[in-house]
Design goal:
Shape of chain B: globular
Helix content of chain B: 55-70%
Structural class of chain B: mainly alpha
Radius of gyration of chain B: 23 Å
Largest interface: A-B, 57 and 66 residues
Largest sheet of chain A: 2 strands, antiparallel
Number of strands of chain A: 2
Structural class of chain A: mainly alpha
Order of helices and strands of chain B: HHEEHHHHHHHHHHHHHHHHHHHH
Oligomer: heterodimer
Radius of gyration of chain A: 31 Å
Number of helices of chain A: 25
Order of helices and strands of chain A: HEEHHHHHHHHHHHHHHHHHHHHHHHH
Shape of chain A: globular
Largest sheet of chain B: 2 strands, antiparallel
Chain lengths: 673, 537
């Protein structure tokens, strides 16, 4: 049964090919149903394979299908490595993926490029499965780039709007910076171990030189930073929200962005034997990203942007887990996050759908009245991400924080602050969207919500044009009057069709209970996921706790308290209006610390000028020399042509002079000889 | 494997290689005899001769012995006996796929575009160009090689100068003079080599490539100078930074078929030359100059990519991208590792396929809009989704997306370079970032957004146009997923070449660079993992 593993990526791949050839003929909704069927088929196959894997020795299955690239000493196969970690990944990717496919059948209904969407969606799932199932680094890289390309297609899906096209491009190019690290990392792996096969080089990691391992770990971490949107390369992810909302749920929350975390967990023996500052750096990058992105999320107006910064923040927690050696905790949080974040993205999509493409929370409010299922499920997602017990996020986040404390109390404190902010900002989203007064009939945006991008917008046309010329891709997400929403007072928000609400309910169920796959309680053996993943991380010196049962229970209680406090604050501020709301959404946070704007300005300003200068250099200097040689030759020829004047007396003079010189030469020869 | 690659005697009775070279020549002659009033007949003749050549080349591919490192299907005929100049042809794993690439791309170029006027001259020159390229890849005689190398210049000069766009005369002259100037140094080097070849044998001379290699008559200092003579010619042709500025002009003004053939085939004459006449003839000088040439290659990869990003004309953009990509071929080659050289040959093949397809698409674009200016194009994906889809795939192949053909060569080239010259590879790898930048940016400006008034009625690909693209797209995907059949055939010849370089430098103690890890051979033999001192053979 386990040998059926090839079917898992093959089914969505077949779906991709069929839809590519005759998706137009299938049309709306059959193209969507076919894609959903293929993804669902992959999930069922994964369950069958899972059952088979339980009977495998060490719960591992390896198989080589054919040789991919053989060149001299370099040899890479198309092979599969199915171990507990890739199995867990496959299960949640295909499971959550199926739900999102189903949701898309309804969400994309009526879109002009309906079948195209599912072409990309199925290809994405196939690539993602190759990424996690590949038995060597290069095959992981194949999936890695494949999901990147699909992400590019899907972000710029509605390419007619320039901002969407720019967002897709930005995502791909930013990711390429990370890919450079991935490639150089692979070169070092091959140089050091002579192979890229996980099964061959990971067990050898302990005997390799520490310098080599350090470089490998750093380079692959650079790749992970790009793909998993960590500081400083995270800035493509908020822009990626330009894609259709199911894409944000699947690609930019549940699956693709976790690839970097997966890669780090996969190479855990390399991390374990590299210099000790490498895991420390990973932990700090993770926890700082978690905190910084959480602050950014507190002041977003666009519901999807708020969720996007939240995703960046949550991915930071996973890197924190990797950095402190609690790899299974990273995977645990990845799984619970896939459920609750996919749920919330789909919920926001349902809101956007029901509000006629409105994404600005300043135009929402009291939607619980019109969209009961959406609001109820979204609130489950909020409680899960906030870490309110017994929802799933409580267990997974607490697991990470406990191990962070064991590693370095400073990491724990920063992580706890970020957790508090998480509970707060998501509460803000909930209250602004589902509670309060109905704001959609009101068109103008309140003065106090304006921020820098708006100030720029109001700064006069000349200044605005100058800024835009400098920065063509400047993100004006703080558009004072969003152009996409024209929700008149005569319209009413409505609940979404069943294809959209069923996935919401299913995901809400798992977001609530998924924590039970790994209960970090000091009683019994309830850490099911940890035990299941144990063999994968055995070579990587996983962290161990020395806390007593009461200490662990105390930490759990503290985590719960912080979560509830965050929720409570958001209730006071955003529901009871007990505070100045304006001062709690500073422009500095709303504009994401101006980091994105600065980078864009730099690229559009000095960066572009440097490129232009080099193009000028090529045209003027390098080509100038070439043409200069040509011109000089012509000039020299024209000058020397003058000697050919046609006057016999000049030629006679020349002959006479030449004869004298020759004669003189001969005479000296004779005399001296 | 002996140091000197000897010609194998096993061949087909039928003179296959002369037929491959002469088929287009015959085609050109027949075209010359057809009256001007029958352009249809002219086109038919050109297509028949191109397809005939392709059929022969594919037949050759089928019966080629994959494990044989030496020259196959060798055929020789005396030409000028007193100088030992022969019409001497042979094919090995290195030239095999370049011949097949040439044979496949020429008919596609004919199908992709028609001349604007004077069909007869156009088809005659294109057909002759194919003969020249085939001759270069197959020649085993220095004199024959030189003649063929020069023979490619004239038809391309005519094609650009007479059927080109805008500043075609300027571009044609620049191309002709620049490449010819490069060749002069090579001619001198060839004569010096030939005269020295049999220095011991009573002053007789020989142009036979293998005899010249075997005699090893040139001392180290002279060999370095002669290497430079060849290198100038090849550097201009490849083109290697800073000798590249003729290419953007030539590409921009060339007609579609000229651009396709130039990018896909003619540029490879340079890198192939480096392999066959640089490494093979001058193993010591190659090692000596490798860091210098690698540096130029790495500069070219990044520099040309940056310049490409700022181009306003699509053809110029693709031209600069070619300079960048050929940089990968050059660094792989001068890494002097089996992995790198195999990667280099793969880059040549894959760049030919991908850039050939790109120029075919640009030709279709020009047919519809009569412009290559990016600023005049917009929103084409909305009006022509198939066109946009084909362009996307080819673009991703060109960016080097794994799973498509471009990645295989690029990765192997970089890996080989990394093993021998670590820092060069680390810097060169940043080229993949800029490659994504310039192509995606151009794609966005041309295909995304709303189509402007002029672009609203842009027709999508016709069935005939799709059929031309099908073989190339199939190759792009196939070679990305399963490059093994190609690599398997390249490998023996590359290994023999590396062994030859090693043998020639054994007194310096030079070995093929390799990593610290155990080789596959030693791993299979269950040896302990230790830094092996023996290079993999």
């Amino acid at each position: 049964m386990v040998s059926l593993v090839w079917l898992i990526p093959a089914l969505p791949l077949v779906g991709f090919l069929v839809l590519l050839c005759c998706g137009k003929r299938l049309g709306d909704p059959w193209a969507g149903w076919l894609a959903t069927l293929m993804c669902g088929g992959a999930f069922v196959t994964a369950l069958v394979v899972f059952a088979g894997l339980l009977n495998q020795p060490e719960h591992t299955y390896e198989h080589t299908y054919f040789t991919w690239i053989p060149a001299g000493a370099f040899h890479v196969d198309m092979n599969v490595l199915l171990d507990p970690m890739s199995m867990a990944m496959v299960l949640f990717i295909t499971g959550v993926g199926s739900m999102i496919h189903l949701y898309s059948v309804g969400y994309m209904h009526g879109d002009a490029k309906y079948e195209k969407f599912f072409v990309y969606l199925n290809l994405f799932i196939a690539a993602m499965l190759v990424l996690v199932l590949g038995g060597n680094l290069l095959l992981t890289f194949l999936g890695w780039e494949g999901v990147g390309a699909c992400s590019y297609f899907l972000i710029s899906f509605w390419f007619e709007k320039p901002a969407n096209a720019s967002a897709g491009k930005k995502a791909f190019i930013t990711n390429r910076v990370g890919d450079w690290g991935f490639m150089v990392g692979m070169f070092f792996v091959f140089f050091t171990f002579g192979t890229l096969n996980y099964a061959e080089f990971l067990p050898e990691a302990h005997s390799a030189a520490q310098t080599a391992l350090t470089i490998i770990a750093v380079m692959l971490f650079i790749g992970a930073i790009g793909k998993s949107a960590q500081i400083p390369l995270y800035l493509w992810l908020p822009d990626a929200m330009a894609g259709p909302t199911p894409v944000s749920a699947m690609v930019h929350a549940a699956t693709m962005v976790t690839a970097g975390v997966y890669l780090m967990c996969r190479i855990n023996p390399v991390l374990a034997f590299s210099a000790s500052w490498v895991p420390t750096t990973i932990a700090w990058v993770g926890v700082i990203t978690a905190l910084v992105a959480a602050t950014m999320a507190t002041a977003q107006m666009d519901i999807k942007k708020a969720l996007a910064y939240s995703t960046v923040s949550q991915l930071g927690y996973m890197f924190l887990a990797v950095g402190v050696g609690a790899y299974w905790a990273a995977i645990f949080h990845m799984i619970t996050h896939a459920f609750f974040k996919a749920l919330m993205f789909l919920g926001s999509g349902s809101v956007i759908h029901g509000m006629d493409e409105e994404q600005d929370m300043r135009r929402m409010g009291n939607l619980k009245k019109y969209m009961p299922i959406t609001s109820a499920t979204f609130i489950v997602g909020w409680l899960a991400i906030a870490g309110v017990p017994p929802f799933s996020g409580f267990f997974s986040k607490d697991e990470i924080l406990t191990y962070a404390l064991a590693n370095n109390p400073a990491l724990y404190v920063v992580g706890l602050v970020a957790a508090f902010l998480t509970a707060y900002y998501m509460g803000r989203v909930v209250y602004r969207t589902f509670y309060g007064e109905e704001k959609w009939p009101v068109v103008p945006v309140p003065e106090h919500d304006q921020t820098l991008a708006q100030a720029l917008a109001g700064a006069g046309d000349d200044e605005r044009a100058a800024a835009l010329a400098l920065v063509p891709d400047l993100d004006l997400s703080f558009d004072p009057e969003p152009t996409h929403g024209h929700f008149g007072a005569e319209h009413h928000p409505h609940e979404s069709p069943w294809t959209m609400t069923v996935p919401l309910i299913v995901l809400a169920f798992f977001a609530a209970v998924a924590g039970f796959i790994n209960l970090p309680l000091p009683v019994g053996q309830l850490q099911f996921l940890e035990h299941w993943l144990e063999p994968v991380f055995a070579g990587g010196h996983p962290a161990e706790l020395t806390y007593s049962s009461s200490e662990i229970l105390g930490l759990l209680a503290l985590g719960a308290l912080v979560a509830i406090a965050g929720c409570g604050l958001s209730y006071l501020v955003w529901h009871r209006s007990r505070s100045n709301q304006r001062s709690l959404q500073p422009a500095f946070f709303g504009n994401a610390w101006y980091y994105d704007i600065m980078v864009t300005r730099f690229m559009g300003g000095p960066g572009r000028a440097a490129f232009a200068a080099q193009a000028w250099f090529d045209r003027t200097v390098i080509d100038g020399i070439v043409n200069g040689v040509g011109v000089a030759t012509v000039e020299a020829a024209a000058w020397s042509r003058r000697s050919q004047s046609g006057y016999v007396r000049r030629y006679a003079l020349g002959i006479a002079l030449g004869s004298v010189v020759l004669l003189g030469f001969l005479v000296t020869k004779v005399v001296s000889g | 494997m002996s140091a000197v690659v000897l010609a194998s005697e096993s061949t087909v009775s039928f003179p296959l290689l002369p037929a491959i070279v002469l088929m287009p020549v015959v085609g050109a002659f027949v075209i010359a005899l057809i009256p001007r009033s029958r352009p249809d007949l002219v086109r038919l003749t050109a297509i028949v001769s191109a397809i005939g050549t392709a059929a022969l080349a594919i037949y050759m591919l089928c019966i080629f012995e994959p494990d044989n490192a030496s020259f196959q299907f060798v055929s020789q005929a005396t030409w000028i006996q007193s100088l030992d100049i022969k019409f001497y042809l042979g094919v090995d794993g290195i030239s095999l796929f370049l011949v097949v690439l040439t044979a496949v791309l020429f008919p596609l170029a004919l199908f992709a575009a028609k001349p604007t006027h004077d069909d007869k001259g156009y088809y005659a020159w294109i057909t002759l160009l194919e003969a020249g390229c085939m001759g270069v890849f197959l020649a085993l005689d220095l004199f024959l090689f030189f003649i063929m190398f020069e023979l490619t210049i004239v038809p391309l000069y005519m094609l650009i100068g007479q059927w080109g766009h805008g500043r075609r005369v300027y571009a044609a002259n620049k191309f002709f003079l620049y490449t010819l100037l490069g060749s002069v140094f090579m001619l001198i080097a060839i004569v010096v080599l030939a005269v020295n070849a049999h220095a011991g044998d009573a002053g007789s001379i020989s142009f036979d490539l293998q005899k010249v290699v075997a005699s090893q008559a040139v001392d180290k200092g002279l060999a370095r100078w002669l290497f430079l003579g060849f290198a100038v010619a090849f550097a201009v042709k490849t083109p290697l930074f800073p000798f590249h500025t003729w290419l953007p002009d030539a590409h921009t003004e060339a007609p579609t078929a000229g651009s396709i053939d130039l990018a896909a085939v003619v540029l490879k004459l340079g890198t192939y030359g480096f392999l066959r006449y640089g490494l093979y003839l001058f193993p010591e000088a190659s090692i000596y100059f490798a860091p210098f040439i690698l540096t130029l290659g790495v500069i070219g990869i990044i520099y040309a990519a940056v310049v490409a990003a700022m181009q306003k004309n699509l053809k110029r953009l693709v031209a600069y991208s070619s300079v960048s990509h050929m940089g990968f071929a050059v660094i792989g080659l001068f890494s002097l590792t089996t992995i790198g050289i195999e990667g280099s040959v793969m880059v040549m093949i894959n760049h030919g396929i991908a850039t050939g397809a790109l120029f075919i698409l640009l030709g279709y674009l020009y047919k519809r809009r009569h412009t290559y200016e990016i600023a005049e194009l917009s929103g084409l994906q909305k009006v022509a989704p198939w066109f946009a889809g084909a362009f996307t795939l080819v673009m991703l192949a060109s960016i080097g997306l794994p799973g498509l053909n471009g990645f295989v060569g690029e990765f192997l080239s970089l890996l080989g370079t990394f093993i021998a010259y670590r820092w060069w590879a680390i810097v060169a790898a940043t080229g993949v970032i800029i490659a994504a930048l310039y192509l995606l940016w151009a794609y966005q400006r041309v295909f995304h957004g709303e189509p402007s008034e002029d672009n609203k009625r842009f027709p999508d690909l016709s069935t005939a146009e799709r059929l031309v693209l099908v073989p190339l797209i199939a190759l792009i995907v196939f070679l990305g997923v399963y490059p093994k059949p190609v690599l398997d055939r390249i490998e023996p010849s590359v290994k023999a070449l590396v062994a030859h370089v090693e043998e020639a430098n054994k007194d310096q103690g030079w070995h093929e660079p390799h990593g610290e890890g155990p080789t596959p051979e030693s791993r299979n033999a269950e040896q302990p993992a230790s830094p092996s001192t023996e290079a993999p053979r």
